[in-house]
Amino acid sequence: MHSITRSSVRLIRRTLGFIALGIGIAGVLLPIIPGWPGFVVAIILLGRRDPALRYLHLLGRRSLRRMRRSRIRQMRRLGHWLSAHYVGMRRSITPRIIQAEKIFG
């Protein structure tokens, strides 16, 4: 019987994490499925310090900032509304993600 090496487990977790991230992005774009469960699973599988996740998070925050500073009034309002929801969700989910990382990490 073959033993599973540490690097193969990391590769499997990373692959599953990116699949979950894709589901989360699809959930944001499509109104059929919610996106946040995919993001939470991706963060748990990849880890909060994964370079790809950190880059995507930075890209999302910059996009919100641009929306809030837009010249178009409706875009500014949407940016403020989305930013408020982002902050609320982040405050409620981050402790649970940290707890899950301790369990599954």
Task: Describe the structure in your own words.
The chain is built from 4 helices and no strands. The protein has helices at 6-29, 36-46, 51-68, 73-104. The protein is elongated. Helix 1 runs antiparallel to helix 2 (36-46), helix 2 crosses helix 4 (73-104) and helix 3 (51-68) runs antiparallel to helix 4 (73-104). It has one domain (6-104). The model has no long low-confidence stretch (mean pLDDT 86). The longest helix has 32 residues, at 73-104. By secondary structure, it is an all-alpha fold.
Features:
105 residues; mainly alpha; 4 helices
**Averaged pLDDT:** 86
Shape descriptor: elongated
Low-confidence stretches: none
C-alpha-based Rg, rounded: 16 Å
Order of helices and strands: HHHH
Supply the number of structural domains: 1
The share of residues in helices is over 70%
Biggest sheet, in brief?
none
Q: How many beta-strand segments?
A: 0
The end-to-end span amounts to 25 Å
In percent terms, what proportion of residues is strand? under 5%
In short:
With 105 residues, the chain is mainly alpha-helical. The protein is built from 4 helices and no strands. It has one domain (6-104).
Which helices and strands, and how do they pair?
Blueprint: H1 6-29, H2 36-46, H3 51-68, H4 73-104
